[in-house]
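Lecture 7 notes: from sequence to structure.

We start with a single chain of 127 residues. Read the sequence below before looking at the structure.
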Amino acid sequence: MAELARCYDGELEVYEHAAFLNGRLIFSEPEVVGDRPAHGSVFTLEGSAIVSAVKAAEDPEKPGIIVRLFCGMHEGDATAKLVFAEPVHRACICDLRERETEELAVDGATVELSVLKHCKFITVYVE
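Now the structure, written as tokens:
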């Protein structure tokens, strides 16, 4: 049974087929060494909510980001506090069309959200 399961869930073996170039592939892009840290974070999440999306706002006039969170708890409610790497100028709750509905209190780089009920989600716009 385990061998049959591996047929469906195993690694996909692939190779590049280029009959006219095999063995002499030349990559024209030079290797670039970055000067930024290899790891970093725009924000950290404290609490039991789950981040489902982080993206730029759809409105090109808005310089901030959209953070969408949801309560994935089987039972109970979820909490969420977003702690950003930089100070937050403003934050607000939005609907799914990213229309602002409610301003949120900002404490430096921290945005604390209300409790998320079972299977609920929240969309937050942050600048």
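The chain has a mean pLDDT of 83. Keep this in mind for problem set 3.
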